[in-house]
Please model this.
Amino acid sequence: MAVADRIDGMADAEPEVFLKAPHFSTKGIGAFIRFLDNREGASVIDGALEDAGLPRDYVMAEDLWVSSEWQLRFQRALAGRLYQLAELPEHDHPFWQLWREGGQSSLSREAVGPLFDVVRTLGSPGLAYRQMPTLMSLYNRTAQLSTESISSSTHRITLSHVDATQSIDAALYWNLLGTLERLPMIWGLPDAQIDVEESPFDPKQGSQRLVLKVRHTNPESIRWGLRMMGTLVGGVLGALAATMAHQVLVTVLGACLGSLAVLWFMEIRWRARAELELAEEGRQLESLIAAQDGRYQELWEEERKLRRSLLASQKLSGYLPADLVDEILENPEMETTLGGRRTDAAVLFADLVGFTPRTERRSPEDVVDELNLY
Model:
C-alpha cells in the first residue's frame, strides 16, 4: 500500500493533517465501517478508529477523505484487536475476508439506497461493469481501473496502482473481488464467476497489477431466448393452423406475432434511450462529485500550508526576543530595524556534538568560558 508522505514536525498534530490526504473517499469508508459495526461490534471498531487517529464522525461523513496512512493504521489496529496480530497478515489470512464481505455488502439495497433501483434500470450487469472505472475514481485515488468487454456477459477488469512502483494490496484485492462477484445480485442474478489472470500474490508469476476475468449471467440473453421460443411456438402453431385451413386462427396468430414484433422493437428503442439518459445523468453526477472533491483537495492543501507556516513561525519565534515577537504580532506590516549597542564580538564556526542543547541550558558567560577552553 502506498503510504502518504509524512510532513516533518507534524507527529504531535491532532488530528494529523496527513491522515486526511485525499486518497480514499469517506463515501466508501463509511459504508465499510457500518458493515464492520454489524459484523464485529461497534465497540471493537471504535477502538480501532481511535488507534487509527481520526474520529468516527469524520470517517462516517459523506464528503471527506482519508489517506493511505490512515488506511494502514486502521488495518493494523483492527488486525491487532480481532486476531492479536502485531503486523498485517498475508493476503490469504481470514482477516482479509472482511474486505471481501464488505465489498459484497456494499451492493445491498440498504447500503446503496435509492440508487439501487436506478442501477437496476440499466437492465444488466454489463453496463455497470463498464462504468467501473468512473466509480473507482470517485472512491479511490490510489488505483486506476480499466475494463474490456469480451462479450455481453464476459469482461476483463484490470486494476493497477497510480504509483507504478507500488502493487495492489490485499485489502483492495479482496474488496474489489467481493464487489465484482456480487454485482449481478442487483438484478436478482447469481454471483459472477471470477478468474484471476494476474495478481501480486501469484507465487509463480507475481504482477504489480490485478487482472480479473468476470463472467456473469446476462438477463438479456434469457429474455431474448424466451422471445425466440415464443416466436417459434407461434410459428409452429400458425403452420399447423394453415395446414388445417383454419383461416381465422391464422389471422389471429399473425396479428399476435405482429404485435409481439412491435413491442419487441419498442422495448429495444426504450432501453437504448434509457441507457443514454442514465449515462448523461451519470456524467453530470460525476462532474458534481469531482468539483466537490476538487474543493476538498484545495482546502486540504491550504490546511497543510497553514500548518507548515505555523510550525515554521513557532520555530523561528524561539530565536527572537519575546518583545519583538509581540510587536510583530501586533503589527505584521511593521518594518523591523536592528538596535542595541556596539560591542566587540567573536564568531565561532564549530561542529560540537550536542552544543546547541548544552548552551541553551547555560548562561552566555558560562558558554564563553567553555568555548575559551578550545
User: Anything to note?
Assistant: Residues 222-302 form one domain. Residues 247-317 form the longest helix (71 residues). The chain is about 55% helix and 10% strand.
